[in-house]
Amino acid sequence: MYQTGRRRLAFAAGARPAQACIRRWRSAARMTRMGALTSAAGVRIPAILYGTAWKKGDTERLVRTALAQGFRGIDTACQPRHYDEAGAGAGVAASLGPTLSRADLYLQTKFTPVAGHDPARIPYDPDAPLADQVAQSCAVSLRNLQTDYLDCLILHSPLATEPQTLQAWQALESLVDAGRARQLGISNCYRLDQLEALCRAARIRPAVLQNRFYADTDYDRDIRAFCGAERIVYQSFWTLTANPQLLGHAVIQALASRYVRTPAQVLFRYLTQSGVVPLTGTRSQAHMREDLAIFEFDLAERDRRAIDLILAA
Q: At what angle do helices 85-95 and 130-145 cross, to 10 degrees?
């Protein structure tokens, strides 16, 4: 998720390419070109998702706008502190019709442990057993999103101990068994040993890992390699907001000029060509169109290697 100002920052060294300013994208063409990944669980995941964190009262409107522009994947959470999950559901419901069905969409939400909530706005009984907390949260999510199943249900973060994390995971597994969720994932898991332990212990292995993508964790280099080997789809958030130094890097700027794209488009396209599914949380229709337009070009292998070197520096 990012702020519009990050886009402006990326162009501080020069004018926005004229072609990017005047291009008009047609929704049908975008959807034809948009990529998708199929997870180990057999679930089709759009190659870029619209993220709804921190949208508050604008959530419904922005979800409607994102779907109208061509997004088909929505990420949210049952965490009133940072998400309006019901607003996301209202935006989805308002968008469904003759040309868009629930089956066309990928809806992903999260169970947030007690520690991640505003104590005054926990959407389940915090004194209930952990398994009941998970079940109650999922029931709220299904009601908020106005659906009878989730395409992915994510554990918002590991719990304080490995046994607690596994207990929550087993509760999530029961929701897959019950048909409430098609696959499971985990977020904010920055220790490879934690992810490996979960994969070893789980009956239903994580199909998705969603992490902040930034320099402080070396861009999850080892974790992303593990995910690739284990067929876990790596999703990135804060991809632009946390990386102004990447967007302003001379290599990224030069590639943007050569491909007649924005630096943000170059970074997003690099990630999608590397098997990463980025989240974008823009409020701008123009930037939504730009984000979807990344599938209209491919970075050459030498240019991808040049970005690899930046991330490894």
A: 40
Helix (H) or strand (E) holding 283, with range, is none
Task: Give residue-wise pLDDT tens across range 202-251.
Answer: 999 999 999 999 999 999 999 999 999 999 999 999 999 999 999 999 99
Residue 132 and residue 164 in contact, taking contact as beta carbons nearer than 8 Å: no
> Could you tell me the residue range of the domain that residue 198 belongs to?
4-312
User: Rounded CA gap, 77 and 100, in Å?
Assistant: 23
Distances (CA, A) of 12 to 33, 48, 108, 186, 307: 30, 26, 35, 36, 20
Is this prediction's pTM over 0.70?
yes
Element holding 135 (H helix, E strand): helix 130-145
Tokens of 193: 């040993």
Q: Say how far residue 108 (Cα) sits from the centre of its chain.
A: 9
| CATH for 173 | 3.20.20.100
Distance CA 20, CA 27 (A): 16
Burial of 122 (0-12, 13-18, 19+ CB in 10 A): buried
Number of domains present in the structure of the chain: 1
